[in-house]
Give the backbone structure.
Amino acid sequence: MKARIIVVIILVCMIFSGCWDKKEIEDRAYVGTLGIDVVEENIELTYSTPNVSVITGQGSGEETKFTNSFTGQNIIDAEEKFEEKTGLILSLDHIKMIILGKEFMESEKHFKKAVDYFARNSNYAKSTLIVGSIKTAKELTEATPKTVKLTGEYISQLINKETYLENNPYYLNIGELIVDMYHRKGLEIIPIVLYENEEIILNGVDVVKDYKRCCHLTRDETIIYEWLLGKGKRSIVNFEYEDQQLSYMITDIRRIVNVSKEDDRLNIKIMIETEGDINTFLTEGKETRLDADTIQKVEEKINEAMQKEMTTVVKKIMDEVAKDVLYLEDDLKIHHQKTWIEIKENYDDYFTSAKLSVEADNKIRRIGMIQ
Amino acid sequence: MFSSNDRISLRQLQILIILILFSANSLTLPHVVTEYMGQTGWMLVITGCLLLGLYTYIIVALARVFPDESLVVYSNKILFNPLGYLVVLVFFGSFLFHAAIELRLFGELVKQTLLKDTPLEVIILAMLFVVVYLNRKGIECRARIGEIIIFVTLIPIGIILLLALGKVEISNLNPIIEVDFKSLIKGSYHVSLFFSGMSVVLFSFPVINQKKDMFKGLVHCIIFVGILGIILSIVTIGVFGHEETARQLWPVMTIMQVVEFPGAFIERQDALMMSFWILTVFVVINAFVYYSALIISQTFKMKENDYINVLLIPVIYVCALIPDNVSETTEVYNQFIDYVNIATLFIIPLVLLGIAYIRKLGHFKERKIEERGEDR
C-alpha cells in the first residue's frame, strides 16, 4: 500500500509539473510572411507577424502587422537574432508565404544554401508558398496593400485565384522547390510578384538556372510557356481574322513531342494540340456566320498566331536559358527511352544544339448558341 | 479470440506480422530501393517479397517439425547443447538489436519533427515504458491492440497515398527498360532481409491454433505488405524522382509533409500523420522486446516473463543510445541486416530443418514410424 502511495505521489509530481517550461501564446511570434534578401553579401530576413488583436477587432490601434528585419551571415544566423532582439519565440508553423528578393535569387551561394536549409529543417511546412520579388523582399513584406492588409495572405489569395489555369504557373511551394532544384540541378521557375500603387500583381515568372536567376518571362509569356508545356486550359489566344481581333479559349490542350537523332544532333518537334471555344465572332459589314469552311479558316489563323507566339518564347528560352526548361526530357524518358539512355549523360549539350520546331493544331469545338 | 492469455488466432498473428513487416521499413523502403535501382527500384519490392516467401516456407517447415514447441526448446534437441544455445543467442541478439535501432530511429524522427525541445532519452524511455507495459499483459493483449492499430494506421496511410497519386510524375518512373541485373540481385537480397520480422513466427508457432493454414496465411501477409510497399515506392519515386528519394532519410515522411488535404483546416498535417505512424512503430518495438523477453524466460524455464521485460529496459535503452547520430544508426542497421538477418531468416532455419530431417526428429520421426507401419 505504501509503495502504491509513493508511486502515485511520484506520478502526480511528474504529470502536474508539466507547466514548468510553458510557453504562453503571447510570448510567441507567429510569422505570416518571411522575406529573404541579400544585403552586402549577408542575408537579411524580414518577418511580418500579424497584429491579431487589431485584425480580429478585439484591440485598438491601426497597425495590422509588425515587421522586423535581421541580418546575418546565413538564414540560421539571422533567425537567431529574431529571438535575441524581440524576446519572442519564433514560430514558423503558420507561415503563409516566403518572398525571395531579386538580389537573393541572383546569388548562387545563398540560394543553394537556403534550399539546403529548407530541405533539412522541419520547422517550415513543405506546403508554404514561395514567390520572388521584382525588387527587394523587404519592400513587399512591409507593404500594406489597399484591400488585404497582410501581404502573405494577399499573395496567396491571388495565386489561388489563378487556378483557372490547369497547371497554375504561380503556384510553387517549398516542397516543390527542394525537389525541382535537386532533380533538375538548380533549374526552377519562380513566380514573380510586383507591388505598385498599393496593389500586388502577379507579374510573370523568373527562370532560375544553376541556382541563379537568369531570365524573366512576362505575364503573357508565362501563358505561352504553359502552352509549350502542354498546359494552360481556359487560357485565351488572341488572333486576327479579317482585320478583327478575336479570341479563342482553350478548353483542352496536350503536347506531343517527336524526337529523332540525326548526325549526333536532336531534332525535336513540339506539337501543341488544343480544343476550344469561340465566344465572339463579329466581322463588320461582312457575312458573320461561322460555317464549316469559315471555322477551318479561323482555325488556321489561330494556329498561325499560337505558332508565332510560341516560337518567340522558345527562341528566348534557347538564347537566354539554354537549358531544358520545357521539360522535354520527361517526354524522352517516357516515349523515347532508348534515345534517352543514350544521351542522358550529355543531355544539356544535346538540348542546346537541338533543332527545335513548334507547331500548333487547334480545333474549334464550340461556337456558342448561334452560327 | 481466446479467453486464455497465451493463445492467438492465425488472423491475429497475420495482423501482427503485417504491422511488423510494414512498419519496420515503411519510412525508408523507397530510399533503400532507389539506392540500388534508381527509378525502377519498386521492382525490388516484388523480388524481395519472392525471396521472403522462400524464407517463410523454410521457417514454417521448421516450425512444423516441433509444432508445440518454440525454437528455444527444439534448437537444443536438433543441435548439441552449446550450439543450440548459440542459435538462440543469435535470435535474442537480433531481436534486441532491432528493438534498439527502431527505438533510436523513432526517437530521432520524433525529436526532429514533433518534440524538438524534449531530450532524446526521454522520448526513448517513454516509448519503452509503454512497450513493456503492454508486453506484461501477454501475447493476446498484443494481438488485440494490433487489431485496433492496423485500421488506425493503414487507413490514413492509404488516404495519403491516394492523395499523393495526383502528384506522381510518370517521367520520374521512366525509363523502365533501364534495369541493371547485378543491382537487381543485390537489391533483392538486401530488401528481402529488411523483413526480418518474419523470424518471430519461429517463436509464435506454438501459440497459434490453425497451424495447418500457417504458410498460406503468411503468404497473404507477404502479398499485402508487398503491394503496399510497391505502391509506397512508386508514389515516392513518382513524386520526388529517384535522386531525391535516395537523398531523403525518410522519404515517406516527406510525402506526408508535401501532400495537402483538400479543404483541410490543419496547418501541419504531417504532425497528425506522424502520430499514426508512431502507433505502427510501437507494434514493431513491442514485438522485438516481447520475443527477446520470451527467449530469456524459455531458456531459463521461467513460468512468467513479466519482469524480464522490465529488466530489458536499461539494456535496450543503452543500446539505442550507442550510435552517435542518425547516419551511423542507419549504416550499422544496414550492415547488421546483410550479415545477421540472413542467418535468422534463412541460414539457421534451413540448417536446423536439414539436421532435423537427417536425424529424423519431431514430425519427421512420426512420419518414419507411420511409413514403417504401412510397410508392415
Chain B touches chain A at residues 112-113, 117, 169-172, 174-178, 239-241, 243-244, 247, 254, 257-258, 260, 267-268, 270 (CB under 8 Å). The two ends of chain B are 44 Å apart (CA to CA). The CA atoms of residues 36 and 111 of chain B lie 29 Å apart. Chain B has a mean pLDDT of 88.
